[in-house]
Amino acid sequence: MWGDVFGFVDSAGKSIGLIGLDNPAIISMPLAFIGIIVVSLLDNSKNAIAERAAFKAQNIRCQTGLHE
Asked: How far is residue 45's CA from residue 38's CA, in Å, rounded to a whole number?
């Protein structure tokens, strides 16, 4: 639909994207993961600090089933 509106159409009349890839997930998925990592590392809220502090105990419970 947007190909018709903005003129992103190839010679056969098929709509193409801004970046002419057959599989745009090749670019969008790694960018999404990088964005998730960057945002989570930059989060310094009280909740994020508490989650980081609780991670070690949660990891031990997850891997062994034992409680500290």
From this structure: 14
Q: Identify whether the C-beta of residue 57 lies closer than 8 Å to the C-beta of residue 65.
A: no
| Residue 20, token pair as written in the block | 């002419």
Task: Give the DSSP letter of residue 13.
Answer: S
User: Is the full-model pTM beyond 0.90?
Assistant: no
Token look-up 């310094």 returns: 44
- pLDDT tens profile 1-38: 556 666 677 677 776 666 667 788 898 999 999 999 99
**First-to-last CA distance in the chain?**
57
Q: What letters, b where the CB count within 10 A reaches 16 and e where it falls short, cover 1-13?
A: eeeeeeeeeeeee
